[in-house]
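sry for the spam today, last one i promise. struct tokens for design, 499 residues
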């Protein structure tokens, strides 16, 4: 009895609930999409009530389809789209404005202003982040400045701020708990990751009344119990909500990356790479983000994060624009049909290059074409280009973390590509491990909650319940891999500073 955990996975396009058993296997899953709101070019919003209702709906459905009784559910954990910002009334729970989504660029001019005022270095030092519209701080400031009456009401203590984790916990506990976990807090640009507390100076600079901020709490403790007043969820009342983490951090844990030097990469439209750096806060000299991965018990665990802007989108481009393949899966056989890239390099800098280059003016290029170049060479170069960009990012991470990467655990749509994974292992010179269960984000959240509830006993358990489906080890000769990387960097030089 009491051995199951439900993870709520509140993403950018859908809300999902997954019931896990104690071996980390999925017992039931439910998912509901909700509308994206685009009020102007570059602006993205969600209705906080649709976030909440789709999440409650999927929780109720997943529970019902699991066939379990409420007494068998030990705990609920939460993982969420990060940085998305919500302000609501303390008395009624009514949002004062739509949620401003992480992708929304409306506060870019405000970030420019802060840069001109010289805040960039201080923000990096205190929060581990780069000064960008991506994070919650300037989004909250926008709501305070632009929604009539909100600033006055916030100053009077009538309004609350929260990211999506906080919004869900507040609602699910019937307004009892106004808390956010450290991993989510570390993405607000208001949170000092050295002192592990809200930063007064930054709140002043951004004119944020500190009384509206939630209490920052660890990732594995009881935040409250599911309220009995939630329609449709009465049966589950009293189940503790006792674990939460932002999506990428939850995936890091769900991939069992619990030791320094262990990293995960998600191969989606872009790549999200995260490396565990242990109990010491990393300093990045390459524009990577330093964040709190989690705090469990007394131990704060930090991580480094970076992304490749265009990964799976390169495959989509080859399919939809160049018509080199009919579907993404075909790229594997085509790439494997030639012994090498035939000297072709494809740099998919469609929107510039991120870490370690940070060149917004770079654009895509294909070099090394001869009369003998075939469709297979180009497709292979496209896949290889994804792997090279991940390697460049991970090289930067290793330098910042002052630790070599031990293993790269992978997930995301393009991680099913055997050629891509083998080539990645060949040039990274380290093993790549693809798990049997790809719902790593939800598993991470379930694990945090189950750890507190006693379903699992320590973080080592997650590494034990995670199963590898495939391990790719470097096969290519090291000198050859090095030569390929050298040529790749020459190709990158040709893509840079173009626009
Ligand atoms: P996102 O969450 O960003 O939408 P997913 O994790 O669902 O991304 O992955 C989808 C991406 O993976 C697409 O860009 C697609 O082109 C790519 N992809 C899917 N299958 C393959 C494959 N077999 N080989 C290479 N890329 C693939």
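last one done:
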């Amino acid at each position: 009895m009491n051995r199951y955990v439900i993870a709520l996975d509140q993403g950018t396009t859908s809300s999902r609930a997954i019931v896990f058993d104690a071996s980390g296997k999925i017992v039931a899953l439910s998912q509901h999409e909700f509308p994206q709101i685009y009020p102007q070019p570059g602006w993205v919003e969600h209705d906080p009530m649709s976030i909440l209702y789709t999440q409650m709906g999927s929780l109720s459905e997943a529970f019902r389809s699991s066939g379990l009784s409420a007494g068998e559910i030990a705990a609920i954990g939460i993982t969420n789209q990060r940085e998305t910002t919500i302000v609501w009334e303390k008395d009624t729970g009514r949002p004062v404005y739509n949620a401003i989504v992480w992708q929304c660029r409306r506060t870019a001019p405000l970030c420019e202003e802060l840069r001109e005022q010289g805040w960039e270095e201080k923000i990096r030092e205190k929060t581990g982040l780069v000064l960008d519209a991506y994070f919650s701080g300037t989004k909250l400031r926008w709501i305070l400045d632009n929604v009539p009456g909100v600033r006055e009401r916030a100053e009077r203590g009538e309004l609350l701020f929260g990211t999506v984790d906080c919004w869900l916990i507040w609602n699910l506990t019937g307004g009892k708990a106004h808390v956010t976990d450290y991993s989510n807090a570390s993405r607000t640009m208001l949170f000092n990751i050295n002192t592990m507390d809200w930063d007064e100076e930054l709140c002043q600079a951004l004119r944020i009344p500190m009384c509206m901020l939630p209490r920052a709490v660890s990732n594995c403790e009881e935040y409250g119990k599911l309220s009995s007043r939630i329609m449709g969820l009465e049966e589950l009342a009293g189940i503790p909500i006792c674990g939460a983490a932002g999506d990428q951090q939850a995936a890091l844990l769900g991939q069992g990356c619990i030791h320094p030097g262990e990293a995960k990469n998600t191969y989606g439209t872009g790549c999200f790479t995260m490396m565990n750096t242990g109990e010491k806060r990393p300093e990045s000299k390459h524009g990577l983000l330093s964040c709190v991965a989690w705090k469990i018990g007394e131990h704060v665990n930090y991580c480094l994060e970076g992304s490749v802007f265009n990964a799976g989108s390169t495959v989509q481009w080859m399919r939809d624009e160049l018509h080199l393949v009919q579907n993404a899966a075909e790229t594997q056989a085509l790439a494997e049909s030639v012994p090498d890239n035939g000297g072709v390099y494809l740099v998919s800098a469609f929107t510039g290059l991120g870490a370690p280059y940070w060149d917004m003016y770079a654009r895509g290029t294909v070099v090394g074409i001869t009369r003998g170049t075939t469709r297979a060479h180009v497709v292979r170069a496209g896949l290889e280009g994804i792997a090279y960009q991940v390697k460049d990012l991970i090289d930067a991470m290793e330098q910042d973390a002052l630790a070599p990467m031990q293993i790269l655990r992978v997930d995301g749509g393009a991680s099913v590509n055997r050629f891509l994974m083998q080539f990645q292992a060949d040039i990274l010179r380290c093993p790549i491990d693809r798990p049997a269960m790809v719902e790593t984000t939800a598993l991470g959240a379930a694990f945090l909650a189950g750890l507190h509830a006693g379903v699992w006993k320590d973080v080592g358990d997650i590494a034990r319940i995670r199963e590898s489906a495939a391990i790719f080890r470097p096969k290519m000769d090291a000198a050859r891999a090095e030569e390929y990387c050298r040529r790749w960097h020459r190709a990158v030089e040709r893509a840079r500073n173009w626009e």
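The mean pLDDT is 94. ok im logging off now
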